[in-house]
Amino acid sequence: MFNPDASIQELPLFDGHVVLVIDNALLAPERWLDWAKQAQAQGLFQHGQNNAYPGVELPMPEQVCSALDAFFVRFGRQRLGARRTLQLYSRLALVTLQPDQLQPRQWLCHRDRLDLPADQCAVASVLYLFQDSSLGGTNFFRPRKPITEVERMVHDSGHLSASEFSARYDIAPGYMNESNSWFERVLNVEPRWNRLLFYRGELFHSSHIPHPELLSADPARGRLCLNGFFSCRRGLRV
Q1: Which pick of 38, 50, 172, 231 has the fewest CB atoms within 10 Å?
Q2: What is the phi/psi pair of residue 219, to 5°?
Q3: CA–CA gap between residue 137 and residue 16 (Å, rounded)
Q4: Do 143 and 186 form a contact (C-beta atoms < 8 A)?
Q5: pTM of the model
Q6: Which Pfam families match (predicted)?
Q7: What is the DSSP string of 55-118?
Q8: Does 79 map to a domain?
Q9: Which domain holds residue 184?
Q10: CA-to-CA distance for 189 and 175, rounded, in angstroms?
C-alpha cells in the first residue's frame, strides 16, 4: 500500500518545527483514485457533521489507518517528536465549496486537536491524489499577534455573522492563501501527485486554494487528498 523506499525531506518552519515531505508515498496511487471514483459514484462522499472542512469526505477503514500509521512510524514519528499512536482517523476528502459559500471559520487557517492532555501531541498528514498543481497545496502560518487574541478571534469566527466578523477583525471572505494582519505565511508546500506531508497539528495551516473555480466533487478532476489525524504520546523532536 505505502512505499517503503519513498524519498523524504524536511522543510523548516519556525521554533524548531518542520514539515516532512515524502514523495512517491504510495506504491499504486492510481488505484486510490479508482477507489475514490467508485465511492463517489455510490454517493459515499458526504459533508462532515463535526468539522469545518469545506467539502466532502469519506472515512477510511481500519486497514488503511493501520497502514498509514506504520508508514508514519517509519518516516515521521520520531522526527516530529511523537511516540506511540493512541488514536488515528483518516479520510479521503475533496474541497468543493466556492469562496462565497464559506463560513467565517473557513476563512482562516486552523490547528488540529488542541484538546489533548499535556503528555500527548497531535500530528496531521495530507497525501495529494491529483495531478493538476493549480488546485493548490498546503500553507503554514505563524501568528502575528498574542495567542490569546488569536484564540478570541478564532472563537468569534464560529459565533459571529459573516458581516460582523469581517468588520471586527478586518478579514475578507474566501480561502486564506496569503499573509494578513493576523498571520504570516511562512511556507507553501506545492502539491505533487503522490506526495505526502506530515506535520504537528498545533501548527496553523490551511489548504492553498488559488483557483477555486477548478474545485470539483469529481475525484477525477477535483482536489482529492488522503488526510490522517494522529493523537500520540509526546516525545522529543529531533
Answers
A1: 50
A2: -60, -25
A3: 22
A4: no
A5: 0.95
A6: DUF6445
A7: EEEEEPPHHHHHHHHHHHHHHTTTTTTEEEEEEEEEEEEEE---GGG--GGGGS-B-S-----T
A8: yes
A9: 16-40+51-89+98-221
A10: 16
The Cα 17–Cα 151 span in angstroms is 20
Number of folded domains that form the chain? 1
* CATH classification at residue 77: 2.60.120
Location of C-alpha cell 469566527: 157
Instruction: With CA atoms as reference, report the closest residue to 97 among 56, 132, 153, 146.
Output: 56
Digits of tens for pLDDT over the chain (238 positions)? 999 999 999 999 999 999 999 999 999 999 999 999 999 999 999 998 778 899 999 999 999 999 999 999 999 999 999 999 999 999 999 999 999 999 999 999 999 977 899 999 999 999 999 999 999 999 999 999 999 999 999 999 999 999 999 999 999 999 999 999 999 999 999 999 999 999 999 999 999 999 999 999 999 999 999 999 999 999 876 5
